[in-house]
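Hey, I'm writing a tutorial for new members on how sequence and structure tokens pair up, and I'd like a real worked example in the thread rather than a made-up one. If someone can provide the structure for the chain below, I'll link this post from the tutorial.
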Amino acid sequence: MTSPSITRIGIVAKQGLVAASDHLTRLATWLTKHDVVPVLDDGTAMLVQGRSSLVGAATRSREDLPHDVDLVIVLGGDGTLLGMASRIARSGRDVPILGVNFGSLGFLTETRIDELDATLGAVLAGTATYDVRAMLDADVERAGARADSRIVLNDVVFTKAALSRIIEVEVLVGGALVTTVKADGLIIASATGSTAYNLAAGGPIVHPRVDAMILTPIAPHTLTNRPVVVPGSSEIRIQPFMQVEQDEVFATFDGQSLLPLKSRHVVVVRRAEKPLRLLRGSSRGYFQVLREKLKWGER
């Protein structure tokens, strides 16, 4: 019996992922048989163009998709899921997301393709399990006015240009000065994002249910400048110092978009108003996923 709240499901595949074509066709057929309308984003529709079972299927742009569906299925890696998570947040709707792993690591897209039917069966039966993940709201201000705004699931990263010297940024939490970071960069990560760039830079793994944000310097000039975990309710203000006009500092949002920062720019990061609902596709717990992905305990 179809859940009354799930009548249209969006399907998004990693761009150019030809290996997903057969799975997309089978998935759309399965949904149709269960009285659910499959809605493909434009790029995904190109992967199955001309297939008779999908002729006339509903399509939308990736930006518009969250406005028109009750659930989004992502086939690809974590990067594809992060892009859709941001679009869902910008839509203002509470649309859950299911990540199916076609990548090499996939902390977020943890569901295997052979688990998909059972997972969707649980969704339609109303017995599926969802994880609630806090997102980060990043406002870029200049002279007290908002110049840009982004919503991310994993992190906001401040880095230098390839030929620049180390960056220097002032860090305030809750209005109180923490430190001035001199480093190759600085990561502000959510608990979910702790297993992304933060982990590679030597930051701690934080369970996604912990209400926290992590500040991790990248190759700090001062060795005592270590990662700091702050309450998730904190407001973090980052102001880069430009020593000379040629200095360049960039803010990167979930690895999806890049913004060059100018003198007197301030980036304010806080917990987003709405969290993301991430559909759990298996009985594997968080630590089991970590063991599988990080190969803990293996020789």
